[in-house]
Design goal:
alpha+beta, Rossmann fold, 2 domains, single chain, globular, five-stranded antiparallel β-sheet, 5 helices, Quinone Oxidoreductase, Chain A, domain 1
Length: 215
């Protein structure tokens, strides 16, 4: 199997492809064949050396991925061989408030998803709906969950609320679409008329170009 490694601050030129033996799952662990990855700005932060959470040396890159369960270890009950799943970016954070003990994250202090095979705890996996492709599911763990938590966390979004999204990055695009699905009004800011038209096309009720309208 092959995987992409890097060190914090090494830059894109420091990304290296390595070959390894395929790992074997232990008790309550699952061997996942990775079918798709998505990239987030956090990957650039790791490569630039500015990611705020710990990054292990020679880390396997990538927080986001989806794939197929190909082998299960003893005692696994949550998934079965053949299941299509996505991996949680914070595999130890199951519920409740985040705390430092739950902070280890894929592609940071833990080896990540830019690999052909990975062993993960069964608790770190979420089944993919049948209508999602692997590529679509791979976009959810970092950006999708961040947007969902922002809208549905401490103060749950209600129909009729107004949501302001900043820019046209992945978190904002998810938040805009979640807001519309909940019956909220969505206003987006952006830096160009071209991006404004794209934001309107995905459902924004109003768009403000902050370069031409700084106030």
């Amino acid at each position: 199997m092959k995987s992409y490694h890097a060190n914090s601050g090494a830059g894109l030129s420091g990304l290296t492809l390595r070959e390894h033996e395929k790992p074997t799952p232990g008790p309550h662990e699952v061997l996942l064949k990775v079918r798709a990855n998505s990239l987030n700005s956090r990957e650039l932060l790791v490569l630039r050396g500015t990611y705020p959470l710990p990054v292990k040396p020679d880390v396997v890159m990538g927080s986001d991925g989806a794939g197929e369960v190909v082998e299960i270890g003893p005692g696994v009950t949550r998934v079965a061989v053949g299941d299509r799943v996505a991996a949680s970016m914070f595999p130890r954070w199951i519920a409740g408030r985040i705390d430092w003990e739950y902070a280890p994250q894929l592609g940071g202090s833990l080896d990540g998803m830019m690999t052909e095979f990975i062993v993960l705890s069964e608790d770190a996996l979420v089944r993919i709906p049948d209508h999602f492709t692997y590529e679509e599911a791979a976009t959810l763990p970092c950006a999708g969950v961040t947007a969902w938590n922002a809208l549905m966390g401490a103060r749950r979004l209600k129909a009729g609320d107004t949501v302001l999204t900043l820019g046209s990055g992945s978190v904002s695009l998810f938040a805009l679409q979640f807001a519309k699905a909940c019956g909220a009004r969505a206003i987006a800011t952006t830096s160009s008329d071209e991006k404004a038209e794209k934001l309107k096309a995905v459902g924004a009720d109003g768009v403000i170009n902050y370069r031409t309208t700084p106030d």
